[in-house]
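Suppose a colleague, Dr. K., hands you the sequence of a protein chain of 115 amino acids and asks what its three-dimensional shape might be. Before reaching for any lab equipment, you can write down a predicted structure in token form. Begin with the sequence itself:
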Amino acid sequence: MNYHVPPTSTLHQMPPSQVAFHRTELSVILSLYGRFVAAGEWRDYGISCLKDVAIFSVFRRTAETPLYRIEKRPKMRDKQGMYAVVGMDGQIIRRGHDLKKVLRVLERKLIRAVE
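The predicted structure, expressed as tokens, is then:
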């Protein structure tokens, strides 16, 4: 009787690591998202957890390209900051080390003059 034992290197391999938003980060992002939904500006969102970046995409309508992308890139932590808000055209609107401060650029768009 022959037994085939798989190589040990494949048994204990870790799955490829992914970057993801932490619960506290999602809380801040979803709070802002909820205010924009209540104002009728945003309608849908998507979350992507990739190898180098986690992306929270915001849509006005489901079938469109995202209005904004909130990105978390841990490799940029020591440089310009790991959080960024990217516009529809791919231009980085704001980058920084503190998520709340980075998201302030979007909060300004929520404030409108009432007549």
